[in-house]
Amino acid sequence: MLPSTAVTATNPGRRALHDHRLVRRSLILLAAAIIGVFVIIPLANVFYEALAKGPGTYWKNLVADPDTRHAILLTLTVAPVAVVANLIFGVSAAWLIARFRFPGRALLTTLIDLPFAVSPVVAGLIFVLIFGLQGYLGPWLREHDIKIIFATPGLILATAFVTFPFVARELIPLMEAFGAEEEVAAVSLGARGWQMFRRVTLPNIKWGLLYGVILCNARAMGEFGAVYVVSGHIAGQTDTMPLRVEKLFQEYNLPGSFAVASLLTSLALVTLLVKTALEWKTRQELESRRREALADTEAAAAAKNAPVARLQPLARSVLPSARGNQPDRSQEEVGVGISVKQVTKRFGDFVALDNVSLEVPHGSLLALLGPSGSGKTTLLRIIAGLDVPNEGSIHYEDEDATHRKPRERNVGFVFQHYALFRHMTVFENVAFGLRVRRWKEPHIRDRVHELLSLVQLESFGQQLPSQLSGGQRQRVALARALAAEPRVLLLDEPFGALDAKVRQELRQWLRRLHDEIHVTSVFVTHDQEEAFEVADKVVVMNHGRVEQVGTPEEVFEQPANAFVMDFLGNVNVFQGRVEAGRAVLEHFDAAYSDDTRGESKPASVYVRPHELEIDRVPRRRSTLKAEVLRINPARSVVKVELLAGEFGIAVTVELTQERYAELQLKPGDTVYVFPKRVRVFVEDFQI
Amino acid sequence: MIDVNRRVLPGFHLTLGYTLLYLTLLVLIPLLACLFKASSLSLDQFWATVWTDRARAAYALTFGAAFVAALVSAVFGLLIAWVLVRYDVPFKRLFDSLIDLPFALPTAVAGLVYSSLYVKNGWLGQFLVPLGVQGAYSRLAIVLVLIFIGFPFVVRTVQPVLGDLEAEVEEAAACLGATRLQTFRRVIFPTLFPAVVTGFTLAFARALGEYGSVVFVSGNMPYKTEIAPVLIVARLEEFAYGEATAIAVVLLAASGAMLVLINFLERWSSAHVA
Does the pLDDT of residue B243 top 90, yes or no? Predict the structure, then answer.
C-alpha cells in the first residue's frame, strides 16, 4: 500500500473522511478526559505529593535515609546487569530469527515471548524454588556459602527473566524489515562475521537497539513483583527502589514513599522522551529506505537526475587490471575463467538447475539469458558462493571453488537493487572490501579514487547513496565490487531497476568498461537486447537447463530449438507435419533434410516477422492467403497483423518502409504471404 | 531460502547455541522446576490447595477484574487511537507520548498514586467517595489501575492499522450512500476489529499477572480484594512452597493459554489486515 493513500489528519482534502464537528469535539473531549484522569492527574499527583512538604523535606527524604540511598544504588546495579545480559541475548536471538530459517523457528519465537505472559510473582517464585533455602540447589549453595535468593544475584536473575524479551522483540521485526541484502553484500566483499556485524548490521539497527535497551531498562528498574518475591525485603540490603516505595508506604511514610516514586517517575518520563526520539529516528530511517525503493522504480526521476549521458569514453589504463596484463580482447582468449560442471540445484521438489555445465572464457563477458524462473540467478549465486549446488562443482580457473565461502572466493557481486550500505558514504562503500582486507589507509584512498574516476563519480565520494540517482548507485555498486580486484565479476540483473534510457546508456558503458579491464564477468538478464548488446557470449536458459550457448549472432541466427527461437524475438508459429524430407503445411512447405525416412511426424514451423514477405498476388507455390487486420507503421519497420482464414491463425509480418509504401496496404485487403526463411522444429530436432 | 543465508551469513551456530543456552538456563529450566515442584504434590493435595474457597475467590477476582479492565481498555484505546490518528489535536505529540507512560512507569508507583488519588481526601476521592464510589481499597480500585496498565496496549495495536486504512475505502462507502456511522460500523470497525481483539488480549494477559500496582490499591482482603498473585506471596511468606507453586501452576497454565491465544490472534489479525 502506498503511504500516500493512508488516512492521516494531514489529509484535509478527503471530505468523506470528515466526521461531524460535534462528533469530533465530543470524541476529542472524551479522549482528553480519559488521558487526563488515567495518566496526567496521577502523574501530577506523584510530584505534588512528593513536594508537598517543600523541596527541603523532599531532598531529605531521598538522601538522608540510608536505606533509600541504598535502594537507589541497588537499582542502579541490578538493572544494568540484567539489561546487558538481555541485550546480548536479544542481538543473538534477533540475528538467528531474522536471518535464518530453521525448524523450530516459530516455536523459539513464541518461547522468547514466554516471560511476557508469566506473572512476575511466578517469575520470582521459580527462582526461589531453585535457589532458595528449600530449593533444589539450596543445600549445595549453603554448603558453598553462595547467596542468591535474598541477595543481589537473585534480584538480577528475576529482573533478567521479566525483561528477557524486550531487546529481541524490538530487533526481530526491525532486522526483518531491513532485510539481509547489505549483509550478504558485505560478505561477498570479503567481510568476516564480526566485521560485517560491526560495520553493516550494527549501524543499521543501532536506534532500534537503543530503543529496546531503553524499554528493557525502564522495566528492569521498575520491576516489582518478581523482585519482591526473591528479595526478602531486607531494608538496606535487598530493597530496590520500587520495593522501597512499598516499604515506606507500609510504614505510613507517604512523603518518603512519594519521593522515591517521583524519582522513578522522572526516570519513566526520561524513558518516554528518549523513546519518542528514537521512534522518530527509526521511522525516518525506514521511511528513507522506502522512499529509495520507490525512487528506484520511478523511472522518470532517475532519468532526470542521472548524468549517465555525461559518461565519457573511458580513458585508457585507468585501472591496473585485477589479473595483471591481460591479452587484448581481439586476440584469442586464453584459458577458462570459470567452469560450471554438472551443477544441479534443488529447492525442495523444485529443480532450479538441472545438470548445468558451462565454461566462461577468461576475460570474457558472458550473459545468462532466460525468462524468470529459468535458474539464471540461481546459477549466478552458485558461482558467487551465495548458494551451494546439490551436485556438481564450480571451478575458478583450475581451482575447485565449490566449497569455498563467498568471502574466500574474491568475487565482485553487483546486486540488482545495489545493496549499498546506506549509512556509509560513496567513498566508504567502495573502500569497504579494502578495509575488511586491512589495506593501508593511503592505498585505500588511492584505490577508491581510482575506481571513482573509473565510474566517473569522483566528486561524489562524500555523498550518501540516498543522494544519488539509480544509475549512479549502480555505478557505485560496480566500483565497490571491483575495488578489491576480484577474480570474477558477477552482475545480477544489473540494470533491472533502472528506466529504459539510463539502462541503454549504462550497458554501452559497461561494455566499454569491460573492454578496459577484462575481468571475467557473468551477468544475468531477462532482456535479450541487453544480452546481445553487452555480452561476448550468451547462454540461453530455460527450466534450469542450458538451451544454447553461443555468440549473440549464433543464438539469434541459428537457434538450437524452438524455445530459443521463440524467446529471442517475435515469431510466427505454424503447425504442420514433416514427411519425406519436407516440412509440409497447408500451403507452405520447406526442405527438411534431417529426416528422409518418410515417416510423417508433427512439426512446428517458425518464421520471424521480418522473414515473411507480402504480395498482392500469389506469385509462388508456397503462399498463404490472409486478410490485413491492423497496420502499425510508426516505427523503423512497419508491423502488419494479418489473419489467415484457412488456418484461423494470426500472422505478424514486418515490412520495410519502402516495401510498405510500394504495397499500399489497407486493413481489409487480401494478400499473399510467403516466407523468405523458415525453421522447422520436430521435437528437439532442427533444420 | 532454506539454507541460503545459513551458508552465506555467518553466526548461525553461534547464535543458535547461545540463544538456546540462555533461554534454557534463564527461562525453561526455572519454569520446568516449578512444574516439577508442583508434581511433588499428589493430585488430591494439589486440588485441595488450588481449589479452596479463598483461592477460588482470588481466581474469580483476578480473571474478572482483568476481563472488565481489558474490556474498558479496548473501548478507551479505540477511542484514543481514533482521535490521535484522525483529528488535529493540540499537543498531539505530547499526548501520543504520554500513552506510553504505563509501559515505562513502575507499577508500584502507579499503585501508590492511584491509592492516594481515590481515598477520601485524595484529589479524585474527595468528589467520588461522597457519591459512594470507592476508588481505593476495593474491587473498583483494582479495575481502575488495570485499565491504566492495559489501555496503551489497545492504542498501540489499533493505531497503525487505523493509520494504514485506505482512504478510498471510506470514500467508496460514502459514494455508495453510507452515513458516517454506517461506514464506521460496516467498513472501518470490521477492519479494526482484529487489532482491537489483539490489544484486548494483550491488556488482559498483562492484567492477569499484574501484582505491583494491585497490591497497593486493593487492600488485599481475603475473599474480597485478594488476587491470585497475592495469594502466592502469602503462601510463600508462610514458607508453604508447595502450595504457592500449585497456585503458580494454575496461573502459568492461564498465561500459557493466553500466549497461544495471542499468537493465534496475531496471525489471524495480520492475515485479516493484509
Answer: no
- 3-state SS assignment for residue A647: coil
Output the pLDDT for position A585: 66
C-alpha cell, B142 = 483494582
Instruction: Tell me the C-alpha distance between A51 and A43, whole Å.
Output: 13
Instruction: Return the SS3 of A192.
Output: coil
Task: Note the pLDDT of residue A295.
Answer: 59
Q: Which of A372, A380, A448, A441 is nearest to A414 (CA)?
A: A380
Given a contact cutoff of 8 angstroms between Cβ atoms, the answer to whether A585 and A622 are in contact is: no
Judging contacts by C-beta atoms under 8 Å, the chain A residues touching residue B240 are none
**Residue A299 contacts residue A238 (beta carbons within 8 Å):** no
Distance CA(A583)–CA(A681), nearest Å, equals 9
User: Using alpha carbons only, what angle is made at residue A534 by residues A533 and A539, rounded to the nearest 5 degrees?
Assistant: 95
Q: Where are the beta strands (DSSP E) in A508-558?
A: 520-525, 537-542, 545-550
Percent of chain B residues topping a pLDDT of 90: 45
Residues on chain B touching A183 (C-beta within 8 angstroms): 9
Chain A residues with CB under 8 Å of B248 CB are: 119, 121-122, 125-126
Domains plus CATH for chain B?
53-229 (1.10.3720.10)
Which among A5, A42, A115 has the least Cβ separation from residue B27? A115
Give B-chain residues touching A230 at CB under 8 angstroms.
Answer: none
Q: B92 exposed, middle or buried (CB, 10 Å; 0-12, 13-18, 19+)?
A: middle
B238 close to A (CB below 8 A): no
Nearest residue on chain A to B31, judged by CA atoms?
A: A126
> What pLDDT digit, counting tens, does each position of A141-154 carry?
989 998 998 999 99
Amino acid code (one letter) for A44 = A
| pLDDT < 70: residue spans in chain A | 1-17, 292-334, 580-599, 620-622, 647, 683-687
**B1: number of Cβ within 10 Å:** 10
Total residue length of chain B: 274
Write out the H or E segment, with its range, that includes residue A430.
helix A426-435
d(CA B214, CA B107): 9
Neighbours of A364 (CB within 10 A): 21
Contacts of B272 (CB under 8 A, 6+ apart): B191, B194
Q: Which of B101, B107, B255 sits opposite A39 (nearest CB)?
A: B101
Query: Any idea what DSSP says for residue A578?
Result: E
Phi and psi at residue B206, to the nearest 5° = -65, -40
pLDDT tens digits, one per residue of B37-92: 888 888 888 898 888 899 999 999 999 999 999 999 999 999 999 999 988 888 88
User: Closest residue of A to B255, CA-based?
Assistant: A117
Residues 6+ apart with CB under 8 A from A380: A368, A490, A492, A522, A523, A524
Q: Which conformational region is residue A574 in: left (phi greater than 0), alpha (psi within -120 to 50 degrees), or beta?
A: beta
Provide ipTM, 2 decimals. Answer: 0.91
The shortest CB-CB distance from A261 to any of B103, B112, B166 is to B112
Q: Is B223 on the interface with A (CB under 8 A)?
A: no
Q: Which helix (H) or strand (E) holds A366?
A: strand A365-369
Q: Hey, are the CB atoms on A30 and B27 less than 8 Å from each other? A: no
